[in-house]
Amino acid sequence: MRGLVYVYLLTYLGAALSLFYPLIGLFIYIHHALLKPESLWYWSVGARGPGRYSFIVGIGMLVGWGIRGFGDWRLGRSSIVVGMLLAFVTWVGVGYFFAQEPILVKNFLISLLKIALPFLVGITLMEKREHVRWLAWVIVASQGYLALDFNRSYYQGVNRIVLEAYGGFDNNCIAAAMVVGALLAFFLGLAENRWPLKLIAFAVSALMVHTIMFSFSRGGLLGLIAGGIAAFILIPKSFKTTVISILAVLLALRLAGPEVRQRFMTTFVDPEQRDRSARSRVEQWTACLRSIRENPFLGVGANHWPLRSQQMGLPRMHAHSLWLETAAETGVPGLLLLGGFYGLTVYRLRKLVKECHNLDVWSLYMARGVIASLVGFAVAVSFISVVWLEIPYYTVLLGAALLRVHTREWEDRLEPDTVDLREHANEYASV
Known about the structure:
Layout: H1 2-18, H2 22-35, H3 37-40, H4 53-67, H5 79-95, H6 102-125, H7 129-155, H8 160-163, H9 171-191, H10 195-215, H11 218-234, H12 239-255, H13 258-265, H14 276-294, H15 305-311, H16 322-355, H17 361-380, H18 391-405, H19 407-411, H20 421-429
Helix pairs in contact: 1-2, 1-4, 2-4, 2-6, 2-7, 4-6, 5-6, 5-16, 6-18, 7-9, 7-10, 7-18, 9-10, 9-11, 9-17, 10-12, 11-17, 14-16, 16-17, 16-18, 17-18
């Protein structure tokens, strides 16, 4: 019952406040999108049927955004990232006119707009570092509460993410989401100055890592390893950060029990010894490559791969790879646009970290956190089909907002020989 009261209060109060403060609506919308209250509290919120909670908040958010003149479109260094997202949405729309089943493309486009429109609201309204900080905590807290609930259920003897499709996502999709969340939470812990906030972020990260372990997703584990390697490379090397990194690795190894390690090692066995899941992945990837060769420009149409897979004599299913499925459905241009959306965010944030010498410590760590999270995500979804996973889009929003907020600092960056090194040393010492 408490969950129902919480969702109703947050939804309707948030929708009203969104008319005057659309950023509040954005944060509540993202919170609902990640938490999926109908699935989380299925016995109370879910029992009442689809409540359209995100829709109600979203309407208030969009109206408030319109009242504010649709935000400030001087996006600075984040412009190209936003451009890639808009171009991808447009390209999917073009495919509608050439698809075998246009209704499938229409459904895909509507779902994509439910993510793209809030993205535009956020990037045009977040003008201060504090706005970015609030977004980081909304993402981490929402994903962390999910991890807490999954862990509670697991220790009570019910592995929800394996036994049921939570919010329409299977165990592999949830693992990919937890990869992004765990790495983001880890860097948020490094970024915050106050120890209570640090401990909360690190604890949430550990819960998400453990969730990845009992999801039994090989793609999720590979993504976590790749993101962890990226994190170690990106973290400034000091005694404190090295100790924290080592402890994080030891904890991750401890959380990976024998069953997890045994399943993960089947990734590298002989083709003849692969299990059914691994064999189906290879079959789907081969079919995707064949389809890409036949339709390299427009593809077979967004949301069409399960249908195309069936037509090629395979089971009606997704392709077990976001990148190959995107290329097969929207053509090579669609893959380049979606890949550019993520890749250019990583590239620009890396340049921000390297070139903007007067950047504050919190922003430095969060820029690195977004990079590591997206690296982990990119590897994980190479083995997973994640059609409507929201967290990577909102993680890109976090990175794009950092680029926008710090455009002035980047353009007016100090040269290395003019930096007050003592000031920066004091800042790092406080982390």
